[in-house]
Specification:
The structure holds two protein chains of two kinds. Chain A is of the alpha+beta class. Chain A contains eight helices and five strands. Chain A folds into two domains: 78 residues, Arc Repressor Mutant, subunit A (Orthogonal Bundle); 95 residues, Orthogonal Bundle (Arc Repressor Mutant, subunit A). Helix content of chain A is 43%, strand content 14%. Chain A starts with a helix and ends in a 7-residue tail after the last strand. By secondary structure, chain B is mainly α. Chain B has eight helices and four strands; from the N terminus they run H-H-H-H-E-H-H-E-H-H-E-E. In chain B, helix 1 packs across helix 4, helix 3 crosses helix 4 and helix 6 packs across helix 8. The chains are: A alpha+beta, B mainly alpha.
Chain lengths: 191, 256
């Protein structure tokens, strides 16, 4: 198959896909293609959209590729969509940051770091599917251990958790991390 | 003499402390406890005078600061006395917590500057959809819910006087479980929620969890007809609506 054709198909697939599309999934659709061919076609598509300042871009996020609007058009898109602009409160960001770097982590452990009650924030994050209960900690009360979800990566435009901004080293203070005893939940669907 | 105090929204006592430390241009590891304590208490007073709800955590921190300060004012005791160590410990512990919190504040800020979905960049399905009312279903009133709850409670075995429930479950956990269930299947019947529930406590906790989720607009409760089976389902657009972020405790939201 011709390269331009492959690229064109990929663009269509990205357009209709509901979530980030993996190279694997694309390869399954385009017969006789190999992974490298797909990867370089996606990269080329990304570059073209960027170069010609298209209104949509292809970004690598949450283990796949997704078509998103260009950031420069954010205001127009928001105006078109109407409604309240999306906001991220500091409470949300801080709590998410703590969960992201310290997962799996309990509510009490998050509260110890933030110095405030996080009940409300946690339930909002659970409702929005940005964090999930991954297991229960084997301590009295068997509290839930929370971790971030695929949705979290998508929200922050992250390829995976290793692409989180680097957490600064603690100056001259080292914190021994006791290994958490975990009991996996029955339904640990991996996303 | 008038003091002008600018009020910001502080996320908590640590946040307020970091703000004061920054304002005084001192370093976290070398806090002038007396000054900071004074300013901290002054801020709390202003918050209280404005009838702002000063959370308990702020008061606990105030006590800690006063404690550290008073220890420091005492003449140095004998070497290695327990009280000296106590002072050093709580001060060190405070510094450690401040440093730790500062790190997460920093990365939280960085996260907030990323290209955030539905704020900076959008996806095709990300269009905020109007909540479409499901036809032929009616909203259930609180009275009907209470009636349903009473039915569940009546069904419980009466003779278990000794209710020893070691495996306590919180409302929050029940909420998580219910959301998980609704993620796995489109809807669930009210009665089936309580099918495996054995104790009054658990019935009540489950019921409260359900109410909390209704309040948070995470689920909706319906029935086909008056007196018909009550159905629970996830609210439409639960995932697609990252826009509105009002937390359950009515915390104020502000942009970044």
């Amino acid at each position: 198959m011709e390269r331009e054709e492959v690229k064109s198909i990929i663009e269509s697939l990205l357009f209709v896909a509901d979530g980030p599309l993996t190279l694997q999934r694309i390869q399954e659709v385009i017969e006789g293609s190999n992974r490298e061919e797909i990867r370089s076609a996606v990269t080329e598509l990304q570059e073209e959209l960027e170069r010609d300042r298209h209104g949509v871009r292809v970004v690598e996020v949450a283990g796949g590729y997704q078509m998103r609007t260009a950031k420069s058009n954010a205001d127009s898109v928001k105006k078109f969509l109407g409604g309240r602009p999306a906001r991220m409160s500091r409470a949300t960001l801080e709590t998410l940051a703590i969960v992201a770097y310290r997962q799996p982590i309990t509510k009490a452990e998050i509260e110890a770091i933030r110095g405030v009650d996080v009940d409300g924030v946690i339930s909002t994050l659970l409702e929005r599917d940005l964090i999930r209960a991954m297991a229960r900690k084997d301590v009295p009360g068997r509290p839930f251990l929370y971790g971030t979800t695929q949705k979290f990566l998508e929200l922050f435009n992250l390829k995976d958790l290793t692409h989180l901004p680097t957490l600064k080293e603690m100056e001259e203070i080292t914190l021994p991390e006791p290994p958490a005893e975990e009991i996996p939940l029955e339904s640990t669907e991996e996303c | 003499m008038s003091t002008r105090v600018q009020l910001e929204i502080f996320e908590g006592p640590l946040d307020l402390l970091l703000h004061l430390i920054k304002k005084n241009e001192v370093s976290i590891t070398d806090i002038p406890i007396a000054t900071i304590t004074e300013q901290y208490l002054a801020t709390l007073e202003v918050m209280q005078s404005l009838n702002l709800d000063v959370a308990g955590e702020f008061l606990v921190m105030a006590a800690t600061l006063v404690h550290i300060k008073s220890r420091m004012l005492l003449p140095a005791g004998n070497d290695g006395s327990e009280e000296d160590e106590d002072e050093g410990d709580s001060r060190e512990e405070l510094i450690r917590r401040l440093l730790e919190y500062q790190r997460f504040k920093d990365v939280a800020e960085q996260l907030g500057q990323r290209e955030i979905l539905a704020r900076d960049v959008f996806i095709r399905s990300g269009t905020p959809t109007e909540e479409v009312p499901v036809p032929n279903l009616r909203e259930v009133s609180v009275f009907e819910l209470l009636t349903a709850l009473r039915r569940v409670l009546e069904r419980l075995p009466k003779d278990n006087v000794h209710e020893v429930t070691l495996d306590k479950i919180t409302v929050r956990e029940k909420m998580t479980l219910l959301l998980d269930t609704l993620r796995a299947q489109p809807g669930v019947l009210f009665d089936s929620l309580f099918a495996t529930v054995k104790t009054r406590m658990e019935v009540v906790v489950t019921f409260l969890a359900m109410l909390e989720l209704v309040k948070a607009r995470a689920i909706r409760i319906f029935q086909d007809e008056l007196g018909g089976p009550i159905q629970i389902e996830a609210a439409a657009g639960m995932d697609e609506a990252p826009a509105v972020l009002v937390t359950a405790d009515g915390e104020e939201q502000h942009g970044t």
